[in-house]
Design a protein that fits this description.
The longest helix has 41 residues, at 30-70. This protein is flat. The strands form four sheets. A six-stranded antiparallel sheet has the order 7-6-17-14-9-10. The chain is of the alpha+beta class. It has twelve helices and 18 strands.
């Protein structure tokens, strides 16, 4: 008994001594202590997130392997695909992201795929001439601009216009994926890429409504998400320039735009032959029943812009819904099959994120021209659970550190 008490006392003395040394060190070098504690916490959260990504990626791989074995003898299986990759998407990170997440998933699915990098706008149109005859589908790996470029090239081609098109979102803005996947703001990068690849492998092909945009002079283009024009889009373009301000970059962009633009900055257009409309922003989107015309009310003062439009964009930016801009109220009726747009003011149209010179255009609503891979309710992909064997206290601590540091 005396031996046990002596051992316990020695252990208590050592523990107490170490605790006092730690307290004195923190008091003496509190700046270094705070810095290294934050660094250690951020490193732990980073490693934990990477571990979760790895678990989720393995879960998707197992699902795709099971599906591949079950459908190996069927005729509807997608067997040969060509992936057009835009390496410059997302600031040059697209190639790395594709190799890290999409390549393992495609390899596990048993699909034969060929990756073809693109070098410039319109490159896909040239590459389609050399597409193998046994190609089952064309897949786009990039952002909204890359998707729009590929869809336009496919629909212009009389030989390949019946090929289904898949989309693996790797861009900075992926507006189209938010149309076909619910809750993209709460999904991780692995989830979005994993579900996109799963849609392709499972052959979930459906017609998607798109827009045919025909200028009075020039080539026809096709859009899957939107055509927008006005101050809202122009202000959003300032946001990446203030990346170094972190969560304040959107507010800074709104303020910068409002101080560098001649006011009022409204646009004027004639829509479907009606009288000129003065607006802050005009957007055309393909809905389920036709083309929806949406607008932002005109603004006369910089303060009105910051209050009405700036605050709206800031709110959506913080909630992860920047690609789902609130588009305002219908301009002239709920839906249209055709829209004639005559710009009176100068500027740029933005079609799926790509700039086009303002000119008189006719927009048609197409429902059966393009087939794409979309989610299916019959074969859902379940998300992997977060380490059920991990103690709940550890998970709560990690989540608290994330909230404190502003890490999603």
């Amino acid at each position: 008994s005396s031996g046990i008490n002596a051992e316990y006392g020695q252990h208590y003395y050592i523990t107490n001594n170490l605790s006092m040394k730690l307290i004195r060190t923190v008091r003496t070098h509190w700046k270094k202590s705070v810095f290294f504690s934050g660094l250690l916490t951020a490193g732990g959260i980073y490693g934990f997130n990477r571990y979760q990504e790895d678990l989720l990626l393995r879960q998707y791989c197992r699902k795709l392997q099971s599906h591949s074995r079950a459908t190996v003898a069927t005729d509807h299986q997608i067997k040969e695909i060509v992936v057009f990759l835009n390496p410059s998407s997302c600031g040059g990170k697209a190639a790395k992201t594709f190799k890290k997440f999409a390549v393992p998933l495609l390899s596990c699915s048993g699909v034969n795929f060929v990756v073809v990098p693109t070098s410039y706008e319109g490159h896909v149109s040239s590459l389609l001439k050399y597409l193998p005859a046994n190609t089952s589908a064309v897949v786009v790996a990039g952002g909204d601009g890359m998707l729009q470029d590929t869809v336009t090239a496919v629909l212009r081609s009389s030989k390949h216009r019946d090929l289904p098109v898949g989309f693996i979102p790797l861009g900075t803005h992926n507006t189209f994926i938010s149309r076909i996947l619910d809750g993209t703001d709460s999904l991780t990068k692995v989830d979005i890429i994993g579900q996109s690849v799963t849609n392709i492998v499972q052959g979930n092909i459906k017609p998607v409504p798109i827009m045919e945009i025909s200028p009075a002079k020039g080539n026809t283009i096709f859009a899957t998400s939107y055509l927008t024009w006005g101050s809202v889009k122009a202000a959003i373009d300032f946001i990446p320039k203030f990346w170094w301000l972190g969560s304040l970059q959107t507010a800074a962009a709104m303020l910068r735009y409002s101080t560098s633009t001649v006011w009022p900055c409204n646009i004027t257009a004639r829509v479907n032959g009606k009288e000129e409309e003065e607006l802050a922003n005009l957007t055309v989107v393909p809905g389920d029943g036709g083309l929806a015309l949406c607008y932002e009310n005109p603004v006369e003062l910089r303060g009105d812009f910051l209050k009405q439009i700036g605050s709206k964009i800031i709110e959506q930016r913080h909630s992860g819904l920047l690609d789902k801009l609130t588009l305002g109220q219908p301009l002239s009726g709920p839906y249209h099959q055709e829209v004639d747009l005559v710009p009176v003011s100068q500027g740029k149209f933005f079609v799926d994120g790509e700039s086009v010179d303002c000119r008189t255009i006719k927009i048609k609503y197409l429902t059966d021209s393009l087939s794409m891979f979309v989610p299916s309710d019959t074969l859902p992909v379940e998300r992997v659970d977060i380490l059920p064997q991990t103690p709940r206290s550890v998970l709560n601590f990690v989540q608290s550190c994330r909230d404190f540091l502003g890490i999603g």
